[in-house]
Amino acid sequence: MPGRALRIASAVCLLLLGAAIAARRSAPVFDPAAGPLAGVVAAIDPGHGGSDRGACHLPSGLIEKEINMDMAFRLKRGLEEAGAAVILTRRDDTFVPLDERAQIANRLGADVFLSLHVNRFPIPECFGAQTFHLPSSEAGRRLAMLIQEELLTVYPPNYRQALPGNYRVLRGTKMPAALIEIGFVTSPRDRQLMQTTEYRDRVAAAIVRGVERFFAGEAPGGSPDEPADEDDA
Ligand SMILES: [Zn+2]
């Protein structure tokens, strides 16, 4: 009987709808349709890879390409929990040319590009996470400043500010882009921090907060253009 089948189908649809609404209410954090970054496509670029190890401190087992990959997955998780769709420019220990990394993000229509790195400097006293942006990009500057503000809350002794940096991997991107150095491998205190999963998780969460504030239209300096709506979380 078509009429009866239709009624049963309608009832099933209503049940499924109810279940979907209930699931949405009980687990809002993992609902990609509801997070503050819903609709945002984020490209994460784990720096280096393959034969290019990046900055290393071998006695403590810190190898930049590995830290960047690990951080990329932590950041990916955080951004996805906030509702973003995430692209990685590399998913394993292979080297992807710098221009190709930007092109991947352009081709897939990313709204934001986040390149992850570890810093080094001959003076071991130099420490602290730091964010860079293209000198010519006003949006990139706002993004980098917001991320940097959040990074300073992770480790308050860090006094570094966001800076312009004419990095090749950023130059080819068509979207707001930032390059984040999560610490100095040449600094004993940063090495200690980077060896803990707590620091890595807190850095990833700080970057997510910076990206959320960027897409909420906030200005750096703690003066939001649009107050955050806690109901959105
Ligand atoms: Zn690097």
Top keywords for this entry?
about 230 residues, alpha/beta, Aminopeptidase, six-stranded mixed sheet, two-stranded antiparallel sheet, 7 helices, about 15% strand, disordered C terminus, binds zinc ion
The CATH class name reads Alpha Beta
Q: Give the strand order, joined by hyphens, for the main sheet.
A: 4-1-5-8-6-7
Q: How many E-type strands? A: 8
Residue windows where pLDDT falls under 50 for at least 5 positions: 12-30, 223-233
Share of helical residues: 40-55%
Number of domains: 1
Overall mean pLDDT stands at 88
Distance between the termini: 46 Å
- As for the CATH topology, it is Aminopeptidase
Provide the CATH architecture. 3-Layer(aba) Sandwich
Task: Give the radius of gyration.
Answer: 20 Å
Question: Overview of this structure, please?
Answer:
This protein is of the alpha/beta class and 233 residues long. The chain has one domain: Aminopeptidase. Helices cover 43% and strands 15% of the residues. It is built from 7 helices and 8 strands, in the order H-E-E-E-H-E-H-E-E-H-E-H-E-H-H. It has helices spanning 2-26, 64-81, 98-107, 138-154, 168-171, 188-194, 197-215, and strands at 41-46, 56-57, 62-63, 85-88, 112-119, 130-133, 163-164, 177-184. Strands 4-1-5-8-6-7 form a 6-stranded mixed sheet, with helices on both faces. Strands 2-3 form a two-stranded antiparallel sheet. Strand 6, helix 4 (138-154) and strand 7 form a beta-alpha-beta unit. Helix 2 packs across helix 7 and helix 4 packs antiparallel against helix 7. It is globular and about 40 Å long. Mean pLDDT is 88; it is low at 12-30 and 223-233. It binds zinc ion. Zinc ion binds at residues 47-48, 54, 64, 117-118.
